[in-house]
């Protein structure tokens, strides 16, 4: 879904910093010196990104005075030509709080041309949580490998054999694999070869080692999960219960979920019948889906073999990251449609029949139903929707806990402002205006509710994150966007 400039700035102010796909620079004293690095990073980012000149992040993204706007636009175009390949730019004028800004849309470079580099230095950059960073040689290899269809999970593991499989995992897998009509015709070594467990020379495939191996880390020490609780109030304590979880995928999934059960905070809630139960700060159903996805979709090529899946618990969020970006799908389509696209097709196939013998739960279903279940579980727990960030070389999921509960999940005492009504929440007021008045712009909603436009934008941002509104007419940078309410229940 396209995002208008008004909504984008409101989201930046609400979040307090840049997004992965948005770089804001004041340009008060002219063209920023780090502009080429930002362009390189955004051109390497899936979907590209946006540069906004004329806002001061340190001042809450307030507009600043820019001299010679025409020269700044020319400078943007010149910087783009200093990259190899030059990314395509769409430069337009915008307006924030009545002041002019410059909006430059940086198109993603074709996969066959990545990484996009600064021609003079031959350096390439990527987006990170704290700005742009220079790609390492290994990360550059990741982009080069992405030019070809991924088959790393089918590769033979030198020195391995059937004796390196876990007998219990193999027995369970065989019992389910034999139920498949195509495989049921084969037995013994022939079945293992046809299913992609072993190669023609009797070595295990990397997918089979990870799914059914007794100890895959004997061959690949870093293909594991590193977890840590970093919520300590003591500044001298870097992390609590930090550990490495290893073994084959089914056992790593079980171990990660057990670690989460121990380390997640919980609240005691009473049911209508008077019974009480402990409720974890994040729904376990959602976490299991996300961890399983990380395990089966992480990059397995040589460039990423030294990188682990990382899970961190912070005071206000949970962050789960795995090496390798999305394959065959974009972030905006995740969970919105039943599309299956597997980076590790062999690993996914083997894991559909794999189970941890301790509880007989399958690893994945491969029906593209996991992320819709994540969204449903988070919504049922009155938590914000998951945030997915794909940088091309790394895929990150961010969940916010009850401390960052969406405004619509509980009564809100914040009013619309001096000009706004003194009853009800701003979310409910704006949503009611959309339902009674039909599709409207920010300005129209401000007039209808008597609220200041910034308050309306904050409410719209929350409503969009909760899937309670849609854009009827996407305005795009510098233009107005029209919003309409979806058929969801009242807040």
Account of the protein in words:
The protein folds into four domains: 5-135, Methyltransferase, Cobalt-precorrin-4 Transmethylase, Domain 2; 152-218, no CATH class; 225-403, Heat Shock Protein 90, CATH 3.30.565.60; 407-485, Arc Repressor Mutant, subunit A (Orthogonal Bundle). A hairpin with a 5-residue loop joins strand 3 and strand 4. The protein is 30% helix and 20% strand. The protein contains 14 helices and 22 strands. By secondary structure, the chain is α+β, with helices and mostly antiparallel strands. It has a six-stranded mixed β-sheet, covered by helices on one side. It has a four-stranded mixed β-sheet with strand order 1-2-7-6, sandwiched between helices. Mean pLDDT is 82; it is low at 404-424 and 474-478.
Coarse morphology: globular
**Second CATH tier, the architecture of the largest domain:** 2-Layer Sandwich
Q: How many domain regions?
A: 4
Report the span from N to C terminus. Answer: 22 Å
- CATH topology term of the largest domain: Heat Shock Protein 90
Strand order of the largest sheet: 12-11-15-16-20-19
> How many E strands?
22
Concise synopsis of the structure shown:
The chain is of the alpha+beta class and 491 residues long.
Topology:
Elements: H1 5-15, E1 22-25, H2 35-44, E2 49-53, E3 55-56, E4 62-63, H3 69-81, E5 83-84, E6 89-96, E7 99-106, E8 117-118, E9 123-128, E10 131-134, H4 137-145, H5 167-177, H6 188-194, H7 206-212, E11 225-229, E12 240-245, H8 249-263, E13 266-270, E14 276-280, H9 284-297, E15 309-313, E16 317-323, H10 345-352, E17 355-356, E18 361-362, H11 370-380, E19 387-390, E20 394-400, H12 426-437, H13 442-449, H14 453-465, E21 469-473, E22 482-485
Parallel strand pairs: 1-2, 11-15
Antiparallel strand pairs: 2-7, 3-4, 5-8, 6-7, 8-9, 9-10, 11-12, 13-14, 15-16, 16-20, 17-18, 19-20, 21-22
Helix pairs in contact: 1-14, 7-10, 8-9, 9-11, 12-14, 13-14
């Amino acid at each position: 879904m396209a995002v208008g400039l008004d909504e984008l700035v409101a989201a930046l102010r609400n979040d307090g910093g840049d997004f992965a796909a948005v770089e804001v620079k004041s340009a008060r004293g002219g063209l920023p010196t780090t502009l080429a690095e930002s362009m390189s990073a955004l051109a390497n980012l899936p979907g590209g990104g946006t540069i906004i000149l004329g806002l001061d992040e340190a001042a809450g993204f307030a507009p600043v005075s820019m001299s010679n706007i025409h020269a700044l636009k020319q400078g943007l175009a010149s910087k783009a030509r200093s990259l190899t390949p030059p990314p395509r730019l769409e430069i337009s004028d915008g307006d924030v709080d009545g002041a002019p800004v410059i909006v430059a849309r940086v198109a993603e470079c074709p996969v066959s041309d990545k990484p996009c580099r600064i021609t003079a230095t031959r350096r390439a950059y990527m987006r990170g949580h704290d700005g742009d960073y220079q790609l390492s040689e290994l990360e550059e290899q990741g982009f080069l490998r992405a030019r070809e269809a991924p088959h790393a999970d089918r590769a033979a593991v030198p020195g391995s054999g059937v004796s390196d499989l876990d007998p219990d995992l193999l027995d369970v897998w065989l019992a389910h694999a034999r139920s498949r009509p195509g495989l049921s015709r084969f037995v013994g070594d022939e079945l293992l070869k046809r299913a992609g467990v072993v190669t023609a020379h009797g070595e295990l495939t990397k997918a089979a080692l990870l799914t059914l191996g007794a100890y895959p880390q004997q061959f690949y020490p870093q293909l594991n999960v590193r977890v840590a609780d970093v919520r300590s109030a003591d500044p001298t304590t870097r992390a609590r219960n930090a550990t490495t979880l290893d073994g084959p995928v089914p056992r790593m999934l079980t171990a990660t979920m057990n670690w989460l059960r121990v380390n997640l905070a919980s609240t005691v809630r009473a049911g209508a019948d008077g019974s009480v139960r402990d409720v974890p700060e994040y729904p376990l159903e959602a976490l299991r889906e996300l961890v399983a996805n990380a395990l089966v979709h992480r990059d397995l090529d040589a460039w990423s073999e030294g990188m682990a899946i990382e899970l961190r618990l912070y005071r206000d969020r949970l962050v789960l990251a795995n090496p390798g970006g999305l394959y065959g799908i974009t972030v905006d389509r995740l969970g919105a449609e039943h599309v299956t696209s597997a980076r590790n097709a062999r690993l996914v196939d083997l894991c559909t029949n794999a189970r941890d013998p301790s509880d007989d739960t399958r690893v994945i279903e491969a029906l593209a139903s996991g992320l819709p279940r994540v969204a449903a579980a988070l919504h049922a727990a009155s938590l914000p929707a998951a945030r997915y960030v794909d940088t091309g070389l790394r895929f990150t999921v961010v969940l916010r806990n009850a401390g960052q509960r969406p405004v619509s999940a509980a009564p809100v005492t914040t009013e619309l402002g001096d000009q706004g009504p003194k009853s009800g929440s701003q979310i409910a007021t704006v949503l009611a205006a959309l339902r009674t008045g039909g599709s409207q712009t920010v300005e129209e909603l401000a007039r209808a509710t008597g609220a200041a436009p910034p308050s309306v934008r904050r409410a719209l941002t929350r409503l969009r994150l909760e899937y309670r509104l849609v854009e009827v007419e996407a305005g795009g940078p510098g233009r107005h966007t029209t919003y309409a309410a979806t058929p969801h229940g009242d807040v």
